């Protein structure tokens, strides 16, 4: 009798099979990581594009608002002044005085419209009075233009955000209030802004008709109609998160949480 052993081929050895399995798993993991990096890079590029787009829009709004106020608004004031002066010099009760009076009224209306457009493009209070008073002002403005009863409690936010972030927070509240007025059919609305050492929280609550939040967020056209996409993008740029809580016929609650930078 003879004792002998048949050695396996190199591709039949345990070490080769282990190496093959590890290589396969490594390839799958590597491909997964490459895919994740590509998606992350694409998302970052999209976010940067949206950020620059919003910044560009706000810059253009600020420029147009300044032009309307400094150029067109001043010219209209000069026209109104001269028309009023001519009206005083015209013959009392004459046709010329009547026409000048109409011209003065139209000029005054144009001045008010220019101021309204300028205010909507870039809130003057934000630059001159600070974020806190600007937020209180937009609530008062919306409240005076609708039958909805508004109640607000706004903490001191001056200095909480960098200047470029203040306009985004302002626009978030503005869009939330626009949704309440346009879509909610509410009779009451509460605006609460709180601040602590870590974060700023905004809550807008109404008792309106509400909507199906999950269904609305799943359809881009519906989100755009409610302005939810713009709200979510601005909150994301602030580094925060937003939650839409709504049930049909039970009102809506929009909660925005923005962390404060150390």
Report the β-strand fraction as a percent range. Answer: 5-15%
How far apart are the first and last residues' alpha carbons, in Å? 84 Å
Evaluate the radius of gyration: 31 Å
Mean pLDDT: 80
Task: Describe, in plain words, how this protein is organized in 3D.
The protein is an alpha+beta fold. Helices cover 64% and strands 14% of the residues. It contains eight helices and five strands, in the order H-H-H-H-E-H-E-E-H-H-H-E-E. It has helices at 14-89, 95-121, 124-128, 131-144, 163-184, 213-218, 220-226, 228-237, and strands at 149-154, 188-195, 199-206, 241-246, 252-259. The chain has a five-stranded mixed β-sheet, with helices on one face. Helix 5 links the parallel strand 1 (149-154) and strand 2 (188-195). The radius of gyration is 31 Å and the shape is elongated.
């Amino acid at each position: 009798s003879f004792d002998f052993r048949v050695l396996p081929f190199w591709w039949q050895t345990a070490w080769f099979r282990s190496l093959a399995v590890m290589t396969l798993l490594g390839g799958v993991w590597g491909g997964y990581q490459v895919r994740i990096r590509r998606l992350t890079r694409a998302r970052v590029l999209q976010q940067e594009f949206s950020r620059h787009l919003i910044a560009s829009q706000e810059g253009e709004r600020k420029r147009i608002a300044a032009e309307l106020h400094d150029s067109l608004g001043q010219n209209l004031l000069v026209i109104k002044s001269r028309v009023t002066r001519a009206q005083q010099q015209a013959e009392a009760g004459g046709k010329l005085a009547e026409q000048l009076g109409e011209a003065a009224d139209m000029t005054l209306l144009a001045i008010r419209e220019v101021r309204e457009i300028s205010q909507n493009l870039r809130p003057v209070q934000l630059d001159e009075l600070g974020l806190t008073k600007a937020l209180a002002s937009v609530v008062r403005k919306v409240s005076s233009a609708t039958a909805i009863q508004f109640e607000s409690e706004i903490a001191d936010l001056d200095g909480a955000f960098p200047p470029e972030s203040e306009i985004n927070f302002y626009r978030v509240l503005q869009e939330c209030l626009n949704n309440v007025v346009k879509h909610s059919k509410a009779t009451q609305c509460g605006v609460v802004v709180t601040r602590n050492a870590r974060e700023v929280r905004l809550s807008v609550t109404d008792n309106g008709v509400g909507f199906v939040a999950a269904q609305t967020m799943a359809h881009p056209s519906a989100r755009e109609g409610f302005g939810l996409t713009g709200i979510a993008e601005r909150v994301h740029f602030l580094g925060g998160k937003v939650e839409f809580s709504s049930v049909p016929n039970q009102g809506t609650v929009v909660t925005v949480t923005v962390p404060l930078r150390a």
